[in-house]
Design goal:
Structural class: alpha+beta
Helix content: 40-55%
Radius of gyration: 32 Å
InterPro entries: ATP-dep_Glu-Cys_Ligase-2 (IPR051680), CP_ATPgrasp_2 (IPR025841), DUF403 (IPR007296)
Number of helices: 28
Domain Circularly permuted ATP-grasp type: 104-483
Oligomer: single chain
Region (Disordered): 1-24
Organism: Bradyrhizobium sediminis
Distance between the termini: 68 Å
Biased composition (Polar residues): 1-17
Length: 843
């Protein structure tokens, strides 16, 4: 067989080279391309010739020069890096850069029609089975499904038995992992009914590759994926019981393996990205905790497993869900997609019963077969598996991995030691309900680009279906995972796999599509929507972390610059340097204080991994906080933060390198501030980012003033202060004398026209707080505004001559109190989280 396949590939290459001039390059790329023995391949068809869709692709691809190809590959990689497209492998805590294959998986239109018809039929079948299992229960009563096959699954939730799903559907989004079987047809490898992942990554793959190869993408007439997402969004909107529903995407949080995808979908679909702590149940409704009080939520697209959704009725240890959510479902108070308990259909124990269920419901066979499966909970199937154990892949009946054996993949008896083999046989014989036997399957292969050559690699394609009022809509494309090894029985992103865009290619021109609706179908609005308290909290702290990093970088630059000036050797200048060092120690940026080590102190304060107050640590804190805001930050803003982290993480060799890195990072911080100022909508989210920046800048400026404008401050001290707050030019334009204490204090602390002064920050804070919605009834001024007004009055009426070190310290404490009051009032902490007096059921 291997020799026959090799002859076919060789003959294909020879004939193709004679037939088309462009194939001289293609033949060079695929000179070592060999279809794996007995394995279907997407490029080489059963007749040993390249499939037409791939020939068409490589004809256009071969028109690019090698240099152009590499530039486009580099452009795709750069976009992934700058946009921060990441994922986490199971069990890992660090993000990985998204591994995108540079070539798409191609499927022609005729092949796709057959595939999508099979997916639509299967999705409808699983919907009908779920409706019966949680409803009348006839399938079990009539013996179509053994009761034990259902009861053995942790995903069968008795708490929702008899609960009709609000919105009318158990499955709003379905996905199936498929591969091309040995007969050349598409086969289902597994069903995804819990909370199917991958659609967001499929969207990102499309954005990256269609941008890198824009002309090629257009010329291939690739079907657009936007109509699928539009249909899905419209379906969720229609499932609610009011015209303009509020839709949230429930995520486990930024430590989820696929958090980037959650943020991508929320941003693209216009949903609110929420965590369990953002939601509260009151009466028969679910509400979002926002900075304007509780606001009703109508639809919840969940990416949290069913058992974790409600600690009151499901897993009591879960901190990801919403207490009382199941009771709200009983009262028809919120649509949850997919319905809790729908994950039961992922159980492999049910696969063997689906063919007969298809005939039961539709009177026809499954249009797309799946892997032949024997559930060992039945005596005949168990005996069959045990008698031919070496011919099966043993899998867990209800979850990932095989009970009693390590790993998440199948167990092959012929690869076990004699003792392990006997242990497996005993386990199946004693408790067959937990095991299934499946026929051994080798995944089909697709071409990947490997150092200028084409190489076949096994892949799994995940295809998505969205339930709509008109039936099931299939995404024309999908989420493809490609193994790095040529021998792969399963592919997951945690096993060194790469992803690929999926191009469904048409013979006709494809009209462009977008998620933007017609103007006359949408009520005009100018406010983007509510801001969850958690998002406001993160925006506030993002601003604080960035301002804190800026203050630290200014100290580092001042310390590094002092080493360059040989004329600053006086005792007062030395004292100023020591004050900078002490401040860096106080802020947790460094642990060193000796002046002779100024260079080491600056380097540690800039790049220390261990010091929580170093510039690198602060910018990384900002990045972690920004990760929770991916759906609210523009790609440009995220790129600036990423570049700052990368810059500060680079090793610096000398004093000049430290100062240069500090200065360049300060410029990037200014870029971020400009992006926020010019590009963010002036809604509550922007205000909290600004409030965080203003509060932290006021606190840091006051600390600078206390440290360098103390009662006995020298000229060098005051000069350092003017440099730290970027007021040298302003001071010199006003005063024709060197730095004097009273004018410097006035400029830095009291001047309302100086955008770096404390008074300016407090005035801005007062304006922002006054613009936020009030949370208490009765019209009384609330604590944050009361503190801000009092502080502004103090600064407005104070005179520079009356300021002293004690007064400066008191003002600093007032600023800290104001920052804490903002957090306690608006963010989800303790009793302030629910704010029941502002419950607005129809808001």
């Amino acid at each position: 067989m291997a020799g026959q396949d090799g002859q076919e590939n060789s003959r294909a290459s020879s004939q193709a080279s004679k037939a088309r001039p462009a194939d001289r390059r293609v033949a060079q790329w695929m000179r070592d391309y060999a279809r794996l023995p007995g394995i279907p391949d997407e490029y080489i068809g059963p007749d040993g010739m390249p499939r037409a869709v791939w020939t068409r692709f490589f004809d256009a691809f071969a028109a690019l020069t090698p240099g152009d190809i590499e530039r486009r590959f580099g452009s795709a990689d750069r976009h992934l890096r700058e946009a921060g497209v990441t994922y986490r492998a199971p069990g890992e805590t660090a993000d990985r850069l998204w591994p995108l294959s540079h070539l798409p998986l191609l499927i022609d239109d005729a092949d796709w029609q057959q595939l999508s018809a099979g997916i639509a039929q299967r999705a409808q079948l699983l919907e009908l089975v779920l409706s019966d299992l949680y409803g009348e229960g006839r399938l079990v009563a009539e013996g179509a499904i053994p009761a034990a096959a259902i009861a053995g699954s942790n995903e069968y939730l008795r708490a929702v038995c008899g609960v009709k799903p609000p919105g009318g559907r158990y499955l709003s989004l379905y996905a199936a992992d498929v591969g091309r079987g040995p007969d050349g047809r598409w086969w289902v490898l597994g069903d995804r009914t819990q909370a199917p992942s991958g659609a967001g990554y499929a969207l990102e793959n499309r954005l990256v590759l269609s941008r890198a190869f824009a002309s090629l993408y257009k010329s291939m007439n690739v079907e657009r994926v936007a109509p699928f997402f539009e249909a899905f969004r419209d379906s969720l909107r229609a499932s609610a019981d009011r015209d303009e529903p509020r839709i949230g995407l429930l995520t486990p949080g930024q430590f989820s393996e696929t958090y980037f995808e959650h943020a991508t979908l929320a941003r693209y679909l216009g949903f609110l990205l929420v965590e369990g702590d953002d939601l509260a149940v009151s009466g028969d409704r679910v509400h979002i905790r926002t900075v304007a009080g509780l606001k009703r939520l109508d639809v919840l697209l969940r990416r949290v497993d069913s058992n974790s959704l409600d600690p009151l009725e499901l897993d009591a240890s879960s901190q990801l869900g919403v207490p009382g959510l199941i009771d709200v479902l009983r009262k028809d108070g919120v649509v949850v997609a997919n319905m809790p308990g729908s994950g039961v259909m992922e159980a492999r124990a049910l696969l063997g019963f689906l063919p007969s269920l298809s005939r039961h419901f539709f009177g026809e066979d499954l249009k797309m077969p799946h892997i032949a499966t024997w559930w060992c909970g039945q005596k005949s199937a168990r005996e069959e598996v045990l008698s031919r154990l070496d011919e099966f892949a043993i899998e867990g009946a209800y979850g990932r991995g095989v009970p009693g054996f390590p790993g998440n993949g199948p167990v092959l008896a012929n690869e076990l030691s004699p003792s392990e083999r006997e242990r497996l046989k005993s386990a199946i014989a004693d408790r067959g309900i937990d095991y299934v036997g499946q026929e051994l399957v080798r995944l089909s292969t697709t071409p990947v680009w490997d150092n200028g050559r084409l190489t076949p690699r096994p892949f799994v394609l995940r295809v998505f279906a969205a339930a709509t009022p008109d039936g099931w809509t299939i995404m024309p494309g999908g989420f493809c995972r490609i193994a790095d090894q040529s021998d792969a029985r399963a592919v997951s992103m945690g096993d060194g796999a790469r992803a690929a865009d999926v191009w469904v290619v048409s013979d006709k021109a494809v009209s462009p599509s977008t998620l933007l609706p017609a103007v006359d179908t949408v009520r005009i609005r100018r406010i983007a929507g509510v801001v969850p308290s958690r998002a406001a909290d993160n925006l506030f702290w993002l601003g604080r972390y960035l301002e804190r990093a800026e203050a630290t970088l200014r100290l580092i630059r001042a310390l590094g610059t002092s080493q360059r000036d040989p004329g600053k050797g006086s005792s007062t200048a030395i004292q100023s340097v020591e004050r900078i060092q002490r401040l860096l120690v106080t802020w947790g940026a460094t642990s060193q204080t000796a002046r002779s080590q100024s260079a080491k102190i600056a380097a540690e304060a800039l790049q220390s991994e261990e010091r929580f107050g170093s510039a690198l640590s602060l910018v990384r804190s900002a990045q972690r906080t920004a990760t929770s805001l991916r759906e609210r930050l523009s790609p440009d803003a995220w790129q600036v933060i990423t570049e700052m982290v990368e810059r500060l993480a680079q090793e610096v060799d000398d004093d000049d390198g430290v100062v240069s890195a500090a200065e360049l990072t300060l410029q990037e911080l200014a870029s971020f501030a400009g992006l926020a100022q010019e590009n963010m909508n002036r809604a509550a989210g922007w205000r909290f980012l600004e409030m965080g920046r203003r509060a932290e800048r006021a606190i840091n400026t006051m600390r600078f003033a206390r440290q360098f404008a103390y009662d006995e401050a020298s000229g060098e001290d005051l000069d350092v202060l003017l440099t730290l707050v970027d007021c040298q030019i302003t001071y010199r334009s006003r005063y024709l004398v060197g730095p004097l204490l009273a004018p410097v204090r006035d400029l830095v602390v009291l001047d309302p026209y100086n955008p770096r002064s404390v008074a300016f920050q407090v005035a801005a804070l007062n304006e922002h707080i006054a613009s936020l919605p009030t949370l208490k009834e009765g019209g009384l001024i609330e604590r944050p505004q009361r503190l801000a007004v009092a502080l502004q009055a103090t600064l407005t009426t104070a005179e520079a001559s009356s300021l002293d070190t004690k007064t400066l310290f008191a003002l600093e404490q007032d600023l800290l109190t104001l920052a804490d009051a903002i957090g306690l009032h608006y963010f989800p902490h303790g009793p302030n989280a629910s704010r029941p007096e502002k419950l607005t059921g129809l808001a």
